[in-house]
């Protein structure tokens, strides 16, 4: 037995914890301690499958595992293992200097339902929940392959968070798999409450605004990613699954793109890219034109803009900044408020504040139109992490346009482009397949080509 295992110390520690239940049985003069946590343990199973067999055991001279024919026993040898299994809902059996563990876990989880953050028009509507075991089972339902493999990890110096990675053998890149394992094993955080925290801990470019790992709650999306050779990371207690690697192109793709005919689906995807561009660039381009480059505006339009700005006491940059901050505040309020009133507050607040600002002469009507349209365009970006990145960049563009006009915008775009070209997600270029230039892989990028009937996704 490992020297780190002190039975007397273990018993003293567990007796002091009020949330731990400890029962003592006498078998042939030898005490057996049964230890479990009632709140996360199936107490009926403990009674029927552990306590009763021990009380009715006829062969007390045999080793303890022989008392349980149906329940497998795990022999533990380290103090950390004992705490880990106990907090996972296992029941501990201590006989003299030997400690066994029996799986009796029973956690309270919500039922499987449609994810709120990822809406779909056609296709499967089930989503992951907070149970790691249920999520793994749900993935197996959607991806019935003998090559689907899982590996388990335990991280967190205090929380003992269970993490599992999934991949398809002979499809996944081995170097990618080694990199994922190494990053997970390198995590030394005390507590991992959610997949979002895990995502930040295993990313390398922590100062980048763009997400290096894609997050989803849909089993169908995870299945498609695994077939493409990616790795899925499950975190206990999180309904979101992390997909690595990811690219900027994949963040714009949605499951509905493959559930409808390829021509309208391609148009929708192109519209999504254009909307993202407008959400970032439209307000800043408008500011640069009316502040520095009046000559680039047609004469009639310039006169119309000048009329709408008549009487506005603040510069156009401050107009746009006030409107952007107002919309972001309303958006955040709509998310945090209860569901019955959240959307109403966002819509009514935007209408009332916009109308009041124009009536008071604080902002011009055209500025309200430009900023509102940019905000609507940002809602087409389904991936929330990417949406946050682009919304942050839109403020950077505003300041660049306010100080240097078009030249500032070009400089900002140039710097962001350099960053994206150098950015990698688990050694995969972030702008793939655009750079490096892979023409053959453009079939499923900007345009979603028709499905290949003979096998494969596109032709």
UniProtKB/TrEMBL annotation:
- How would you describe this protein's topology in the membrane? Multi-pass membrane protein
Q: One GO cellular component from the entry?
A: plasma membrane
Q: What is this protein called?
A: Spore germination protein
PANTHER family found in the cross-reference section: LEUCINE ZIPPER PROTEIN 4, SPORE GERMINATION PROTEIN
Where does it reside?
A: Cell membrane; Membrane
The processes (GO biological process) annotated in the record are:
spore germination
Q: Where are the transmembrane segments?
A: 270-292, 342-360, 366-386, 398-421
* One Pfam assignment: GerA
Which InterPro entries does the entry mention? Answer: Spore_Ger, UPF0353/GerABKA_families
- Which organism is this protein's natural source? Halobacillus faecis
Report the principal subcellular site: membrane
Does the keyword Manganese feature in the UniProt annotation?
no
Family as reported in the entry's similarity comment: Belongs to the GerABKA family.
Keyword list (alphabetical) reads:
Membrane, Transmembrane, Transmembrane helix
């Amino acid at each position: 037995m490992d020297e780190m295992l002190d039975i007397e110390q273990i018993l003293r520690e567990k007796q002091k914890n009020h949330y731990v239940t400890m029962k003592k049985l006498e078998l042939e003069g030898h005490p057996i301690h049964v230890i479990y946590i009632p709140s996360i343990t199936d107490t009926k199973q403990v009674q029927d499958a552990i306590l009763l067999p021990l009380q009715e055991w006829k062969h007390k001279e045999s080793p303890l595992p022989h008392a349980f024919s149906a329940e497998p026993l795990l022999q533990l040898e380290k103090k950390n293992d004992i705490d880990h299994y106990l907090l996972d809902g296992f029941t501990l059996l201590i006989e003299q200097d030997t400690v066994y563990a029996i799986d009796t876990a029973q956690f309270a989880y919500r039922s499987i339902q449609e994810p709120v953050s990822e809406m779909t028009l056609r296709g499967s509507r089930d989503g992951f929940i907070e149970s790691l075991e249920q999520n793994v089972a749900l993935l197996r339902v959607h991806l019935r392959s003998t090559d689907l493999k899982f590996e388990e990890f335990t991280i967190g110096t205090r929380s003992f968070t269970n993490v599992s990675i999934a991949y398809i053998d002979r499809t996944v890149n081995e170097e990618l798999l080694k990199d994922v394992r190494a990053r997970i094993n390198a995590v030394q955080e005390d507590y991992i409450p959610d997949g979002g925290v895990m995502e930040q801990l295993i990313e390398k470019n922590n100062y980048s605004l763009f997400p290096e790992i894609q997050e989803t709650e849909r089993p169908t999306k995870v299945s498609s990613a695994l077939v493409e050779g990616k790795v899925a990371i499950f975190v206990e207690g999180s309904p979101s699954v992390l997909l690595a690697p990811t690219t900027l192109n994949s963040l714009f793709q949605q499951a509905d793109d493959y559930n409808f005919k390829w021509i309208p689906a391609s148009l929708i995807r192109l519209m999504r890219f254009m909307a993202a561009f407008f959400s970032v660039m439209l307000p800043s381009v408008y500011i640069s034109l009316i502040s520095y480059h009046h000559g680039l505006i047609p004469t009639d339009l310039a006169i119309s803009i000048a009329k709408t700005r008549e009487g506005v006491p603040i510069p156009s940059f401050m107009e746009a900044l006030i409107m952007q901050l107002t919309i972001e505040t309303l958006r955040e309020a709509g998310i945090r408020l209860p569901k019955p009133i959240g959307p109403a507050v966002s819509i009514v607040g935007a209408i009332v504040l916009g109308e009041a600002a124009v009536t008071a002469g604080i902002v011009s009507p055209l500025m309200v139109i430009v900023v509102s349209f940019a905000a609507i365009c940002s809602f087409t970006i389904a991936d929330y992490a990417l949406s946050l990145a682009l919304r942050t960049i839109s403020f950077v563009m505003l300041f660049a346009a306010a100080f240097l006009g078009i030249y500032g915008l070009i400089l900002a775009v140039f710097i962001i482009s350099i960053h994206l070209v150098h950015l990698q997600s688990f050694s995969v270029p972030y702008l793939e397949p655009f750079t490096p230039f892979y023409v053959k892989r453009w079939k499923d990028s900007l345009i979603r080509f028709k499905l290949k009937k003979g096998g494969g996704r596109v032709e």
